[in-house]
Design brief:
This protein is an alpha+beta fold. It is built from 13 helices and 26 strands. Helix 2 packs across helix 3 and helix 9 runs antiparallel to helix 11. One of its GO terms (molecular function) is ATP binding.
Length: 509
């Protein structure tokens, strides 16, 4: 038995038959679209080979006993990123796509079962029934901290509850240490529970005093959506009725727009804004107001398998009402196309503007645009919507130069973790590459990548080949050379990627 990176459970022998591989055999070919298998190396060594244009194929690394390869193409439905060739005689375990997905699901359940053991030790959670504890366990996020790192500060708004599972922390109040908390197998050390009752300010600072520490964390909104308010939990015993049946659903925008007020036949065409393989975007007018009418070819949607993306885009945008997100006003169903009537952004794409005006490296512009993205994400996350597709091409500008987030095709409502690998490889967070489940926090990672790109003119982990991008991401941002003005901002966002709260004050010059 062996362990696969990103999976906590050993791979079962039944769905993983052994296969002997002769030296020189290529199990995976770069660019191959038929990605049906994942491999775990039992013995021997494989070379990782990447084509480099005129330079030809080059060996960039190797995989030996206990290593694995092929998972990214299975998860991402993308071409193979490199050629994998046996350096000598090897033995591998072979897992097909179906069993690979089942193993991921089993791993998630097994990890949640381990988390339940910690929940069992938390006194305020004793009234929970078994199925409620499992639901809560699946929403927990494991966070890692280094020595002297502050988990939260006295006076800041409380929004998350923590269970200490490794290490030791100091509790400091008004500049004085009042106690220490240490992880223990016998008794749970937890803190921040008042955040589950209200958003009142933290009454102490928590700082790591061991070499490292780990916590399990859940925010108030996730807790309430799964179990209901904590005060209700306190009033019932273990025999009380489960709250799972009445779990809260994310609400639509409080200022929901009424659909059906603008008919397609009443729109007057003003001009063409753009076109692509999906269809065209026209500038239209109605009642003195202008809109962008986006036409999506039904044939293109079917051919590209984008049905779910289009539904996501509609459903998510209906929920949103933010000045930093493109608004959806109407949808229409035509004979050959679907139509979205959208808020126009006549300033064009942010990426095109940066290239045309040479704005890369200008920190004032970067802070202004990133602050807009932060506002957009705060709005989405308040509704438990994860975006997952941030890149300069998905940021539009109004005629006044204000930022607007667009393209909700990969967005979805999430409580806890989700496991679909999607987005742009340059912007992948480590947990997405590890296929261990990701949360809203991946959006903050992408904000860090965007900030770097706006300052440096290229992404921090840039490479012509996805496999090399993933390797660089896994090495961490410590290996990245930051533009001087960019480092502090991106490192602040790395901290927020671990589920801290970011306010606009961090973006002030």
């Amino acid at each position: 038995m062996a362990k696969c990176k990103g999976l906590e459970q050993p791979i079962p022998a039944a769905p993983a038959p052994e296969e002997e591989v002769k030296a020189g055999t290529q199990l995976i070919t770069e660019g191959d679209l038929n990605a049906d298998y994942f491999y775990v190396v039992q013995s021997g060594t494989f070379n990782i080979i990447i084509s480099r244009g005129e330079e030809g194929p080059q060996t960039v690394g190797s995989i030996s006993e206990g290593g694995s390869f092929g998972e990214l193409a299975l998860l991402y439905f993308a071409p193979r990123a490199a050629t994998i060739q046996a350096k000598d005689a090897c033995v591998v375990w072979v897992i097909d796509r179906k069993n690979f997905k089942e193993i991921l699901a089993q791993s998630s359940t097994a990890m949640a079962s381990e988390y339940v053991k910690y929940l069992d030790k938390v006194e305020i959670l004793q009234p929970l029934q078994d199925e409620e504890k499992m639901a809560l366990a699946k929403a927990l996020t494991e966070m890692s901290f280094s020595k002297n790192e502050v988990i939260f500060q006295q006076g800041e708004k409380g929004d998350a509850f923590y269970i200490l599972i490794e290490g030791q922390v100091s509790v400091v109040k008004d500049g004085r240490e009042v106690t220490k908390l240490a992880a223990s197998p016998e008794k749970a050390s937890f803190f921040g529970e008042k955040a589950l009752l209200s958003h009142e300010p933290r009454n102490a600072t928590l700082q790591v005093i061991s070499d490292s520490a780990k916590t399990l964390t859940v925010d108030k909104m996730s807790f309430d959506m799964i179990l209901g308010p904590l005060e209700e939990l306190r009033t019932r015993g273990k025999q009380g009725k489960s709250k799972l049946e009445g779990r809260a659903k994310p609400a639509a925008s409080s200022s929901s727009r009424k659909f059906g007020l603008i008919t397609r036949k009443d729109l007057r065409r003003v001009g063409l804004l753009g076109c692509g393989g999906f269809g065209a975007v026209e500038l239209v007018e109605h009642g003195g107001d202008t809109y962008a009418l986006k036409a999506l070819s039904k044939g293109y949607i079917m051919k590209s398998g984008m049905q779910q993306n289009v539904l996501n885009e509609k459903n998510v945008q209906i929920m949103c009402d933010s000045p930093f997100i493109i608004k959806l006003y109407e949808t229409y169903n035509g004979t050959q196309s679907l139509y979205f009537l959208l808020e126009p952004a006549l300033g064009g794409e942010l990426y095109a503007t940066y290239n045309k005006k040479g704005l890369f490296g200008k920190d004032g512009h970067a802070k202004f645009y990133v602050a807009g993205v932060v506002n957009a994400f705060q709005h989405l996350h308040s509704k438990k919507i994860i975006f997952r597709d941030l890149k300069p091409e998905n940021l539009l500008l109004t005629e006044l130069g204000h930022i607007k987030l667009t393209d909700m095709g990969l967005a979805k409502v999430v409580v806890g973790k989700t496991y679909t690998t999607c987005g742009t490889p340059d912007y992948f967070a480590p947990e997405m590459i590890a296929s261990a489940g990701h949360t809203l926090a991946v959006d903050w990672w992408t904000v860090g990548v965007l900030t770097f790109e706006l300052m440096a003119g290229h992404p921090p982990f840039e490479s012509a080949h996805p496999m090399q991008i993933y390797q660089k991401v896994n090495k961490g941002i410590g290996k990245v050379n930051f533009p001087p003005k960019c480092k502090g901002v991106v490192e602040d966002l790395r901290t927020h990627h671990q589920l801290r709260e970011v306010g606009l004050d961090q973006w002030n010059a």
